[in-house]
Fold this protein.
Amino acid sequence: MQIVDSHCHLDRVDLSAFGGSVERMLVHAKELSVTQFLCVCIDLEHFDEVLSLAKNHSQIYGSVGVHPCELEGKDPSVKELLALSEHDKIIAIGETGLDYFHVEKDTADWQRDRFRRHIKASNQSGKPMIIHTRNAKEDTIAIMQAEKAEQGVMHCFSEDWETAKAALDLGFFISFSGIVTFKSAKDLREVAKKVPSDRLLVETDSPYLTPVPYRGKPNSPAYSYYVAEKLAEIRSVSINDIANTTTNNFEQLFLA
């Protein structure tokens, strides 16, 4: 069995909690059958660290993008995103999207413009997008539709079925994080039952959103295992089935 953490921030994980080095963290993950990782970029100031991790470890891939909540630092043009995405180990554009929880919608024109640039870079490069949305589901879907977003994943999904269905209709995948294990996430678990198996991914978003049974403690990509375990329970299948399905989906979306 092998599991892919389709979204983590390895450059930001507290390594002291997992052996003190990236190598020890990867060993810890392998003990829980987590064997591939997409290290997601959230600002260009740390892109070199993301690329270095991907270049130095065969099981790690990277992305390039600027998170919608990043208010300082470089705001890339389409041309810059395309140039940085040219390396073979950079397999995605993002994370990008809209976040009206941290930024007021009425003042977020710059955020919507940034999102559109990332969509253009994804479409032109042929590399899938990683989309973040929070308190902005209507505008996120509307911009994806208007800009003809071609492929990618709604990461750390926590919205309703209507939003999931709209993304699925555009050809996007849906990725579930540790949130699906939280006691309060009953509605999200209902969504997780409905997502077609060929569009399903798992992630940790580590170092954030540690799943049960380690909620409240540092998160690690290894804990993708517990997300997969919960999805298996929700969907009444084996964890081997979830592992195989989500690994195949990751490879189809990002590596095909």
Summary: The CA atoms of residues 79 and 121 lie 8 Å apart. The chain has a mean pLDDT of 97.
